[in-house]
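Quick question about two entries, pasted in order.
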Amino acid sequence: MRTLELTCPIDRPMSREAVQARISRITGRRDLSAVVVKRSIDARGEPVYRYRVDVYEATERYDETPLAPFRDVHNAEPVIVVGAGPAGMFAALRLLTLGRKPVVLERGKDVHARKIDMALLSREGAVNPDSNYCFGEGGAGAFSDGKLYTRSTKRGDNMEVLRRLVQFGASPDILIDAHPHIGSDKLPVVVENIRKCVVDHGGEYHFDSRVVSVAKGADGLFTVRTAAGSEFKAAAVILATGHSARDVYEMLAADGGALEAKGFALGVRAEHPQSLINRAQFHGRWHPGIPAAEYSFALQEDGRGVFSFCMCPGGILVPSATEPETVVLNGMSNSARNSRWANAGVVVQIEPEDIPGDSPFKLYDFQQKVERDMYKAVREAVKGADLNPMAAPAQRMTDFCEGRLSGTLPESSYHPGVVSVRLDKVLPPIVADRLRKAFPQVRIRGYYSSEALLLGVESRTSSPIRIPRDPETLSYVSIPGLYPCGEGAGYSGGIVSSAIDGLRCAEKAARFFVTR
């Protein structure tokens, strides 16, 4: 085997057949097999796609390990999976391959019914605490662009996750793109196909099933109760509830379970015209047909990281509150990434030592207070005027850094509306001061600009609480057989890493039947 690099115009990506033909021309041979392993954009000169291709002799074999088959589990031992986000879905799929019956309990609605509640949230500011941009089938990632940027293999096989997503309807491009994404318009079909697979093989899905109690009996079985009064029993439970399920932490603490304060990041969403980011990142060479430009940066200010997070090229801003009288923002993009705006979280790392006290909830309380302060700031600014409860406080980037109220605000993709507020005063000083220093230092031409709009608050970057688990068994240190999993447990950050953690916890949960 040998590896070759190919380039082609960025507005004319090569098909598999075109790659094979190019390899034949380069080598003068038609008996070689070519496999594209990576595709990336090179914008240092005229923008091009750059392909890395593994080329094989006829005597060599390109063997890709087959995905494990799903087994019929209608009559198998159940494992309860709490949460149908990436961690929960991939835990359920792995259980199918291991011959265990996944019983998925999701507090929200199925991925299509969920859209109705999200529309009401954006249009009227009506918060359904169990069905919103954070809760419901697919989890927070289902309506946040579907970025799949995790490439680390430290914790598991990321390619297994990507191949499964393709199996259930995602574009095969995600297997080779350096920065793969699925898109919020395509992910619901993928999520629904995963559910159908689980159910067809004998697993169960139960929606509108918010878990209120997890108790282990003398017989070694867990009884899991929902707010609707349903009960489910199993020898193992995977707790994959996401980073916004505060009630789950309270449930564990009420029973004397161990919890730990965990660092997270908080800041703003920064929104620019996509044309500005295109010009900067493609050095003025962008033209229609070229993908919308992305960006990322990481700085250090006063001993803490300040960095971009969840960048959405050609995206929009959406409300992500999970309780009334709070304002929380997130970004999303459809697969085409063709809106007029680019947005990203720009956040400051917050560590447990930054917040006084010993409670494991201290960072969560800090997070919640900032979200409520955003809501109050808008109300004070409009002095009783009738507006969407999810209207966001906003400030031009230059005004934020120079400490003045913005007299006017640029047009924004945020549907509930924006209100001019001194965000630099509403944000905690440990956040605002670092952001003020960081923005002028971002090395993207035109990034620090009065055209850039800052909106508050970006606060759901990861969980501010960790549910401690044994590093070998992955079981909750307080209750063997209960497996804290994914972002909500404090062990992942994003779709792929959460899915990988779901796979790992499912392996351990299936093995628990043998060892208990």
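Here is the second entry:
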Amino acid sequence: MAKNIEPKLKKIGDYLKLEEDTIFTIPAYQRAYSWGINNCDKLWQDINDYVEGGSKDRYFFGTIIINCQEDDTKYDLIDGQQRTTTFLLLLKALLVRINIAIERTISDEDSAGLCRGLQERRRRIMGILYKAETEDISDRPDKVKDTVICSRTPILENCSINEQYKTELQTILKATDYVTAEVNVVKIKYKQKDNRYTNFFKNYKFFYNKISELSDSQLNNIAKSITDNCEVIEIKSWQVEQAITMFNSLNSDGLPLYDSDIISAQLYAAAKAVCKETEFKELWEQLNELIGELENADIADINAILMQYMYYVRTRNGDTIRATGAPDVTVPGVRRYYTETNKKLINDPMSMCSDMLKLVKIWAKISSYPQVKVLLKFNENSKLFLASYFYRLNEDDVSEESIMPILDCMIRLFALLELVDYGYSSKYFKTFLFKEEVSLADESISIEKITNDFDNHIRATWDREDIKGKLQDYDGYALVYLNEYLFARESDAEFKLGDKYDIEHIMPYSGKNISEIRRDAGIVDKDEFNGIVNKLGNKILLEGKINRAIGNEWFRTKVSTKLEDKTGYINSKYPIANALVEKYRNESKPYWKKADIIAATEKASERIVKFIYGE
């Protein structure tokens, strides 16, 4: 007979203090550890305010939901893994700082009472983190003995298929001091400074630094308050289905449950029901690893991929076209679609994951294409319809040539969205795209047919000269990328956006020399200057390093080849900057005037309007 749900109010120290054969586990379907510095700062402030307030009441930190497994020896954290993990990191930071404080106070007769208190805190925390018995813990830190204790099996095992750094908490807990932890934790490739660390270590470091600001007496008080005066409600369950249901509906850690959390939980449950949980975990981990790379490139996260897949499935199933043949642009919520409207997708977890994996692999392959980088400077919704086209492709056959026509169509339409007064939700964009998505997803429909659809829609909807006029008045930024890309295309030059770049105003819009620069450019007053400085013809792409070096310099300095310790357009890899250097190479004192900006804007406008209208 199954046990009933069992709620208990517990001190945090008692909640975390497990029996010898018991361990906390983070289930396979749970989210990754996602608490950041802001969450930890709020937790720290709450604790500090409570301690400094001197209240005799206990401080409540919410509800923890546990699913008991394997004769109650495994405690699956259903709701509370973020707080539990964070409290373990906080306790570890306290322990390391307490060890330092004990060494300071051990030989001070005036601090004997405080030292005894710190030693009690040391024993209490080591008993929690390592299940160590009081008699096994020395009064003062002992490197050899402490290393043995810290090397014990950790009290929390992370089994989440969404967590890339499963052993990171263990690495921190096993280190006897801060420096050892810092040396041994994961350093994320291509990240700088603190960004190269995982959330685990960043949060541990945050607590360690905060605790270092405390006096030894404050340290003793706050450590005692955390373990003995702060409480949680621990709710134990003994039924997996019940645990999954609570996971879907309850959340008390201050972070919303994402659609992907709910969906991955149900996918895992479906895989487990047919004894395919191992295969599913491997597939999901592969999916998450690739999505992590897409997130770093600002392409998509798991929730975006679920949305894109939903769009494709609905299109494939004919759900986006009404019986009358008109597009149905109403979109269900992602969570509701997978868990209620089309549950058969969840019930076939391996197929669904394989389908999403195909999509992710194609995104990974094309993410460096220049056309993709330009498109993504426009409205995010373009990804939804582009993804449906991907499903007609074989991953191995994907190339710039194979997707350029569709990318061009998307860029043309979303460039118009940047210019006109209609929003994405109007019939000229969203309704058209929903109807066209049927063709994008259908491999029997030719690329020529799709291109013609875009051509006909654009030409029938917008007047060419009106669009060119809007381009000449354009003062935004997205079209600067398109202009640079199209200039490279017509010049047969290479276009790579790179990692660190800026939009450069050829004529500066600020700076100490702005009055003289404006006068040299033939601009009469400030109003005229404001009307021309942000035009398309006055903006180019430039490497961030070069842009910082030249700042608001005169045009002749920017295009000069003699910059002493500085750098300029001549060192740029962007095609328009190169063209300016080439054009003014032989002029001893070149100027960039109002007429130059107007001429450059005219050329950029004509270049873009020809592209938009497929000329």
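Reply: The beta strands are 6-11, 23-26, 59-69, 74-79, 156-158, 230-237, 501-505, 539-543. Residues 38 and 203 are 9 Å apart (CA to CA). Hope that helps.
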